[in-house]
Design a protein that fits this description.
Blueprint: H1 12-23, H2 26-42, H3 47-50, H4 65-78, E1 82-86, H5 92-104, E2 108-113, H6 116-128, E3 135-139, H7 142-145, E4 153-158, H8 165-172, E5 176-184, H9 195-202, E6 208-213, E7 219-224
Parallel strand pairs: 1-2, 1-4, 2-3, 4-5
Antiparallel strand pairs: 5-7, 6-7
This protein binds S-adenosylmethionine.
S-adenosylmethionine is lined by residues 53, 61-63, 87-90, 92-93, 112-115, 118, 141-142, 159-161, 164.
């Protein structure tokens, strides 16, 4: 019997095809944000100070297919049951993670999304993908909504606003099991802003071993040593 892989079959496969296709429109949507980004750059503001989640409520900003498949494989290899995601958007990465939990035979991904319209669409997409039983997307600021996640946490995916990676990790750290994996996206896109995060997980002094992978826009792949 081949191992189950929910990504190979409908409904998850066709929902991902539709969402990745729709996300291509981000190129145009980003253009409308260009003036804001230029002003922010001139004022030396961080991305989070310049662009609010509300301003990006039409943008998918998703993981690539390759990155999604990497998350799915990681959750499968860990035999993950409890997965936490900071930054769900329209639910593309959440679908890859929830599919892994389904293929593992149980568990749940707790997602988080601060923008109400995105939260509603993410839930609808997960339902359409047949994965609502393996996912719960919490509405609100992840600094609040991820305070009481089920433990032990096997896998964390950080993909929300970059200035919050460290505070979110600090909230989740007591719930991590030894051997848990933390993946953080956009290390190359936000080299300067994410330097404190990378130093924290790579220093060897905070309970993590870590390296930066050339996947997507740079995945920081960290292992919790306990
Ligand atoms: C890069 S997108 C996530 C993409 C998603 N992981 C995917 O692959 O489809 C980041 C998301 O984080 C959300 N976000 C930003 N700050 C947040 C916060 N404090 N709490 C929860 N979500 C937040 C934004 O609204 C945005 O939708």
């Amino acid at each position: 019997m081949p191992a189950p892989n929910s990504l190979r079959s409908d409904p998850a496969r066709s929902v991902l095809d539709r969402l990745h296709e729709a996300a291509k429109g981000d190129r145009i949507r980003f253009l409308s944000l260009a003036p804001k980004l230029v002003v922010g750059w001139l004022r030396r503001q961080s991305f989070a100070q310049t662009v609010t989640p509300e301003a990006m409520k039409e943008c998918y900003i998703p993981v690539s297919r390759q990155a999604g498949e990497f998350l799915h494989l990681t959750a499968r290899a860990l035999g993950a049951r409890n997965v936490v995601e900071f930054g769900t958007s329209f639910g593309i990465s959440t679908i890859y993670l929830a599919a892994a939990l389904r293929d593992n035979g149980g568990g749940q991904v707790i997602g988080s999304e601060i923008e109400p319209s995105k939260h509603a669409v993410a839930n609808a997409n997960l339902k359409e993908a047949g994965l609502e039983a393996w996912s719960e997307v919490r509405l609100g600021d992840a600094l609040e909504t991820l305070r009481d996640v089920p433990s032990p946490v096997d896998l964390v995916f950080l993909d929300g606003w970059k200035d919050l990676y460290l505070p979110v990790l600090e909230i989740l750290k007591p719930q991590l099991r030894p051997g848990a994996v933390v993946v953080a996206d956009n290390i190359f896109t936000f080299r300067k802003g994410l330097r404190p995060y990378v130093e924290y997980v790579q220093s060897g002094e905070n309970g993590f071993e870590s390296t930066t992978l050339s996947i997507s826009e740079g995945f920081e792949y960290s292992f919790y040593t306990g």
